[in-house]
Amino acid sequence: MSDEVRCLACDNVVADHHDSCGGWQHRGCQTGLSRYKYNKLRSGIITFDFICNRCKFLSSQSSLSLPMPIMESTPMFNSRTPMVPRKPRPTPRGRPVERSGTVEQDPVEVFCRIRPPEQEEQEECVTVVDHSTVKLSPPPTSFAFRNGNGKEQIYKFQQVFGPNCTQKDLFDRTTKPLVSDLLTGKNGLLFAYGVTGSGKTYTMEGIPQDGGIIRRTLDVVFNSITEYQAKRCIFKTDGMNGFDAQSESDAFSDRRRQDALSGSRATRTRKTRQDPGGSNSNSQNNSQRIPDISRIDEIDEDNVFSIFVSYVEIYNNYIYDLLEYVQEVGPSRGLQTKIIREDAQHNMYVHSCTEVEVKSPEDALEVLHRGQKRRKIAYTRLNCESSRSHSIFTIRVVQAPLDAQGEEVVTEKENITVSQLSLVDLAGSERNVRTKAVGDRVKEAGNINNSLMNLRTCIEILRENQLTGGNRKVPYRDSRLTHYFKNYFDGEGHVKMVVCINPKADDYDETLTVMKFAELASEVQVQRCIQPRRDLGLPPGRRRANQLFKEVRNRLQEEGYNAKNEVVDLSPIYSLAPDWPAVSYCPDTMEEVITKLKTYLVKRIHNREKLNTDLKDKILSVRSHIAEMENKNLVLNSELRSIQTLYRDALGTIRNLQAQVQNAESANDSLLKQLNEYQYLKVECDVVREERDMAKVQGHLDKQRMKARLKTKLELEKERLKNDMNTKLTQQKSEAIDLVLPVLSTNQSKIYRTQVKALKEMLLVDDIRQTPRSSTESEPPAASATPGFRPRTNSDPSINTSQQQVVDLAGPAVVNLRHRRSRSQGCDKWVDHRPTQEVPTGTILKPTLTRNKSVTRVRTDDLAKNHAYCLTTQRQDSHGELETKLYKGNILPTAGGGTQVVFQDVEILQQRDPMATPQTSPRKRSSDGTPKVDHNTLQDRCAVGIQGYSTPNTHFSSKRSKM
Ligand SMILES: Nc1ncnc2c1ncn2[C@@H]1O[C@H](COP(=O)(O)OP(=O)(O)OP(=O)(O)O)[C@@H](O)[C@H]1O
């Protein structure tokens, strides 16, 4: 029996170790071998790694870089030290075990995205031929063209996304399958590759309103596992790229500790920084965010999930943790460089890198945003925000099954599945000639180009190995980037690449290089990652069953049953045991394998027996249950029949009622119709009635007008007749006296002459008193004698006919004309007789009534004590126009010892709407245009004033003769 010894650098078999002789035989490259590093195993055994002499020579010439030895000083080879060949490496997690000798492989999927032109009418060198082909046409300015390579080039991709493609389309086609893999426990790598400014960062990150690959991935992951998320801290990292699961109580105390720590950190950050890390802009971004709402359905519902994210960048070939906590107080150390390590499963990981457990896309985006702020970005001539480093955002999904009851997480480490998806935004390749970079930018560009070149070399060698069956060492370790990618290219998951292209002609030469690399990459095959299904022999659907059980229990409790202590019983167990253990034939470990298989089979037999017993019990219980159910069924059937009869009756009643309802509805309809007609008629009637009312009002107004005209005429006629009669009477009287006098004797005649003369005088006097005054005689004699009054003539325009009528009423027949009121007695004391409901005039000019006594009802005492009287009347028409009149007069004692008012003056205040036209403003006017006095009201109100005593029933017209 012999073991192979391979060269650490080129992986060629360089020696065989023979158990029989304990010696070594050179083989393969036949160049001999040297010790390179030694490994001390826990058991104390020391093993060696070797390199062949050829690789040793190449490394000494610096044309090959070797991985650093762990020990600087290699211990001297001691021939007595047993040289134990290295044990074969454990198969990396998820890597398919070669049983039949063939391994399923997938090509690296390469997609092409062409960004929209930067300017309109930009000269372009890229054309989309169809959904998977692009054509590159060299512009005359290009280096290739000038070197005589002016031919058009055709490149094929998995899919080409043109300038108008959406972020959603790109994500669905490129990344969604990787998200599905991630959630089912498989690893994936997606990286954006291209020239600077070609849209790699846009593709990976996008904008809040239209998220790129990273944002959408987070959305879809959380959309898919929302209901199945584990509580925070149930899973925690073991510091060696693995995870442990812990009980709920431990998780609770860890949560509290974390909260306290993050609280104190947040306080410290707030204290030291005014702008809390752009939290405002972050929340603003979140508010503008349009999340992707799609989800993956094929996930194991009986698992619980936790998501961890990390964010690192490779800058100048150093790795930095973008989420590292940097103390803000005290001397700041800045970000520390990290190293890449290999875990127990030979997976590469960034040692001591911060992994944040996130519970929502918003949490994850907050972390992403935090990292982005630390990314090295700088202005270059080709991109104002050019990434100067490669960034790797890794999402790790940790999942573990629920226990048999579907209640708690199974915490054994071997049941935990960890998968990861690395989303890489590579820095763009750039030529200093074009960027005109200086200083740091040149160094950065050099490092970027070197790492990209190394990626290209690795891919080239991989492809060559795959095509030729060669075994050339792939120089993953030459740069941090390829070192980190090693697992993926070695078969640790699906690899996809999005090649970003800027179609502008200036980029032709670089774009051509990118295309060549893309073509190369698409020919590389990576081993398909097949995640072994973990079968713990637990019933599937237990989470749902548990939920259902709890729901039923709650419902029973609500209905009054005591189901609180019922426990979930999710037996039967559907499988006999977990999957067969992975065993391989090896004579050394035969015993161990047989024991393992024996244990497994015993367990299976035990499970089978248990299941059989369980099955018998269940059959019995099901039978009794069925019998019980049948009895119930019989009862229920009879109940059903009676219910059906009732139902039929009810159905008949319902039909009757429906018919009635239909009748009622049709009656209702006809009534509604009638109602409508009546309403229409009513409207018409209302219109007619309004017209009639208007005509009536008009007629009434006409009648009033006519009545007033006739009344005036009648008065005038009466006056005229009266005058005629008086003239005639006077004439007849004097004629009678003249007839009587000659008949008398001289003595008698003397006596009688004197008496007749006196009688004649009396008669004449009486005539004079009774004769109505002509318009020139209309001024009351008392007026001129009354102090404090302004005499008016007819020429005064403010005095109109109605005023004269009022003035006429103040006839001086019974007044003591010689009455003089002394000023000392207060001849200017007024009785201000106002209407009961006075309309406020709001006028600026107001009559001056000094020392007035304001009354609404006049008593004789008021008149006796005061000397002047003012009566205010108001009239308001329907248009709101107001007419206010002030009748002023003197209070004089009458011959009979009473008091009377002699009106001397009328003031009229008319308030009119300036907008109203005479037509639109109907106004009560007399035929000569002067407003009419409302005699009735006036008479009623001033009856006391005129008479000196109250005569409520006296008509104004009948009093006029006495005045
Ligand atoms: N598909 C696109 N649609 C709209 N704008 C785009 C698209 N691709 C790129 N851009 C815009 O082009 C500019 C440069 O893009 P981006 O920064 O993503 O390039 P890059 O390839 O990451 O460059 P670098 O390698 O220098 O970081 C950005 O302003 C971005 O918004």
TrEMBL record:
Biased amino acid composition, Polar residues: 792-803
GO biological process: one example: microtubule-based movement
Domain of life per record: Eukaryota
Comp. bias regions, Basic and acidic residues: 925-938
Residues noted as binding ATP in the record, renumbered to the chain: 194-201
Biased composition (Low complexity): 279-288, 771-787
Coiled-coil portions: 647-681
Main subcellular location: cytoplasm
UniProt-recorded name of the protein: Kinesin-like protein
GO molecular function: ATP binding; ATP hydrolysis activity; microtubule binding; microtubule motor activity
SUPFAM superfamilies (alphabetical): P-loop containing nucleoside triphosphate hydrolases (SSF52540)
Gene Ontology CC terms: kinesin complex; microtubule; nucleus
Entry keyword set: ATP-binding, Coiled coil, Cytoplasm, Cytoskeleton, Microtubule, Motor protein, Nucleotide-binding
Pfam families the UniProt entry points to: Kinesin (PF00225), MKLP1_Arf_bdg (PF16540)
Residue numbers spanned by region Disordered: 73-102, 246-294, 770-803, 910-941
Family: Belongs to the TRAFAC class myosin-kinesin ATPase superfamily. Kinesin family.
CDD domains hit by this protein: KISc_KIF23_like (cd01368)
Ranges where the Kinesin motor domain occurs: 107-524
Location(s), subcellular: Cytoplasm, Cytoskeleton
